[in-house]
Amino acid sequence: MLLRSSVVTSVVRRPRRALQEPASGARLASRSALPRAVTLISSRRMFGGCRRFYQSMMDTEMKLIRNLEQYLKNDAEEEMGTLGDLLLKNGWRMDMNDQEISLTKVVRNNRVTIEIIPNTEESDAEKALLDQDAQESVDPEVSDGEEEADENELKGQHDFFKISISRVQPAGENRGSLIFDCSARAGSLMVEEVSILKPNQPLEEAQSAMFSELSENLQSSFEEYLQEHGINEDTAHIVSLCLYKYDLSLDQKWGNSIIEFLRS
């Protein structure tokens, strides 16, 4: 009886020990599965964070592109209708490149050309005008820093250009030109200098006279001459709008270059 009891006890205990102590291979498998699970969860979190970061960056760039396109569209629509109407009304043809703007038309066998050159150094007549305005606006109680700011602001109030009137010859013969250095300020056109350019003569060798130094009768005669050749109250406004269009073209190039970069 005791022997049989020991055998039974031995048989019953083996399964229990087997359940309590798994094989060494099973223990290794269960331990190795844990790092893989942690690594997988970490990878998913990292990938999700990167995806949200790049999505946020793309959204920011698309918002910037939309705002740039709206900015350029608003600028293009502003004032451009007025310029087209004035050019058509006065018979001007406009040509514009990166260096200058020119307006041309023919009046009674005379070719009238307005040359507008933005962002260049002032001529002697232009410098004299700026100096004169600066002297007239000097306030002894204003500090040096304020005077410098006023002078820079004053320069922006003038638009300088040249009016050239030359004879139109069927055979292309050059008979010289009468040239007026002018400025536009607050919608008014002012003649600063009058020059005569002989045939095939360089511009720097033209004979010139300051308009303000001429007699009043001679000034009035020159003003009537300009009016007869289509230089009227619209001219100053046209010049200002042409310069605005030139600045707008620079803005368009700048904005489109940024958009192209963001989309690349």
Topology:
Layout: H1 2-20, H2 24-77, H3 80-90, E1 93-96, E2 101-107, E3 110-116, H4 124-136, H5 144-155, E4 159-167, E5 177-185, E6 188-197, E7 207-210, H6 216-228, H7 235-263
Antiparallel strand pairs: 1-2, 2-3, 3-4, 4-5, 5-6, 6-7
Helix pairs in contact: 2-7, 3-7
Strand content: 15-25%
Rg, nearest Å: 41 Å
- In CATH, what is the class of the domain at 91-250? Alpha Beta
CATH topology of the domain at 91-250: Mitochondrial Matrix Protein, Chain A
Q: In the CATH hierarchy, what is the superfamily of the domain at 91-250?
A: Mitochondrial glycoprotein
Annotated CATH architecture of the domain at 91-250: Roll
Number of strands: 7
- In round numbers, the mean pLDDT is 75
The total of helices stands at 7
Structural class: alpha+beta
Overall body shape = elongated
Uncertain spans, ≥5 residues at pLDDT below 50?
1-19, 145-156
Largest sheet: 7 strands, antiparallel
Q: What gap, in angstroms, lies between the N and C termini?
A: 92 Å
Keywords:
264 residues, alpha+beta, Mitochondrial Matrix Protein, Chain A, 7 strands, 57% helix
Overview of this protein structure:
The protein has a domain at 91-250: Roll (Mitochondrial Matrix Protein, Chain A). The protein is 57% helix and 19% strand. It is built from 7 helices and 7 strands, in the order H-H-H-E-E-E-H-H-E-E-E-E-H-H. The protein has a 7-stranded antiparallel beta sheet with strand order 1-2-3-4-5-6-7. The longest helix is centred in the first third of the chain and has 54 residues, at 24-77. It is elongated and about 85 Å long. The termini are far apart.
